[in-house]
Specification:
The chain is α/β, with parallel strands linked by helices. 31% of the residues lie in helices and 21% in strands.
């Protein structure tokens, strides 16, 4: 019986993917095997030593101490792409809001309440104050062409925009998913100089924090409109506000409210609505649950942010053991695994070793049930972080 702790409200459609005969799920649970989380702050949480994995039902993991958990052998999963459609649709809305002052127009029309038969005429006269522009034929620059950025680029093409994308780490899968009309910018400066609208879709890292700043804004077109539905820290708010004041930037639409951005007619702040749809929450929960099950039941790792992707078909029958071993990525460790198993007279049916920077992860299928003494010997090998047996 696996124990799963939920730290936030997780979609029932996702939780239904746990077989209830094999899993116990609760928000308060003693010694969980894994944790499901959305936005709960885990940075200072003390975890039981039984925790083997954490799955974030969403893409960002800023609320999880990823590096610290890696050193404990705890695998952290996220769900890239599961909420991509919801975010894509909000980006389209943001582009339109940046183009047409419909929010301000709506607020002004509300002030006509009580004027009865005069309203139609007053509205007709007042509409000249809320003229916007069409997006057809304008150029959209998409920074980051992952699951969300690629979808944004594709739908912008369908809406008649010219689209330029920039992503130095563009994956083959993402490249195949892009509409052939999306042009690829060789440098960020090229994209900035040609774009009427700029939308960012990269993770927030030390390298990308403050990506939109005074320096990059100088390379943009006059009257550019900036969209940030990705991460608040990607945009330096003070620098953008100065550019708005000078007229360099025509407007900002952001999903990350901050004191300095409020009550500015050229800024639209949203309360982090990116993935706030029932469909996105369900998709993320379903994906997170499937990742946890695949890991707990078979040791496979898919979409981890701190351990390498590792997958192996079963090479053993009932009565065999799959060893899931996390270790520091140093030379000679794998040979020590085989030596320990060989000394104990266990036959290795299949094995795989994958690494990611300074960490490695191994799946080793062994004929027969590996005893506790052998598992203890494996655990004591220098560089080994954790050893988990799965008995078939």
């Amino acid at each position: 019986m696996y124990k799963i702790q939920t730290l936030d409200r997780i979609s029932a459609k996702g939780l239904d993917n746990f077989p209830r005969d094999d899993y116990e799920i609760a928000s308060e649970i003693v010694k969980p095997d894994a944790i499901l989380v959305r936005s709960h702050d885990m940075l200072s949480m003390q975890l039981d030593d039984t925790v083997k994995a954490i799955a974030r039902a969403g893409a960002g993991v800023n609320n999880i101490p990823v590096k610290d958990l890696a050193q404990k052998g705890i695998v952290v999963f996220n769900t890239p792409g599961a909420n991509a459609n919801a975010v894509k649709e909000l980006v389209v809305l943001a582009i339109l809001l940046a183009s047409r002052p419909v929010i301000a127009a709506n607020r002004w029309v509300d002030t006509l309440k009580g004027k009865g038969a005069e309203i139609a005429g007053l509205a007709e006269k007042g509409k000249k104050n809320y003229i916007g522009q069409e997006i057809k034929g304008k150029t959209l620059g998409v920074i980051g062409l992952g699951a969300i950025g690629a979808q944004v680029a594709n739908i912008a093409v369908e809406l008649g925009m010219e689209v330029i994308g920039y992503d130095p780490y563009l994956s083959i899968d993402a490249a195949w998913s892009l509409n052939h009309q999306v042009k690829h910018a060789e440098t960020l400066d090229t994209l900035l100089a040609k774009s009427d609208y700029i939308t960012v879709h990269v993770p927030e890292t030390p390298d990308t924090k403050g990506l939109i700043n005074t320096t990059t804004i100088k390379n943009m077109k006059d009257g550019v409109r900036i969209i940030n539905i990705a991460r608040g820290g990607l945009v330096n708010n003070e620098d953008v506000l100065e550019a708005i004041k000078s007229g360099k930037v025509a407007g900002l639409v952001t999903d990350f409210a901050a004191e300095e951005l409020l009550d500015n007619e050229k800024v639209i702040c949203l309360p982090h609505l990116g993935a706030s749809t029932p469909e996105a929450e369900e998709n993320c929960a379903v994906m997170a649950v499937r990742e946890l099950r695949d890991f707990l039941e078979a040791g496979n790792i898919e979409h981890s942010v701190n351990f390498p992707r590792t997958r192996m078909d079963w090479a053993i029958q009932a009565g065999g053991t799959r060893l899931c071993i996390a270790n520091q990525n140093v030379a000679g460790v794998v040979s020590k695994f085989t030596s320990v198993l060989g000394d104990a007279k266990y036959n290795i049916a299949s094995m795989i070793n994958q690494n990611r920077q300074n960490l490695a992860y191994n799946l080793i299928d062994v004929d027969g049930k590996v005893d506790d003494e052998t598992i203890g010997r494996l655990s004591k090998i220098e560089g080994v972080i954790s050893v988990r047996p799965i008995y078939r």
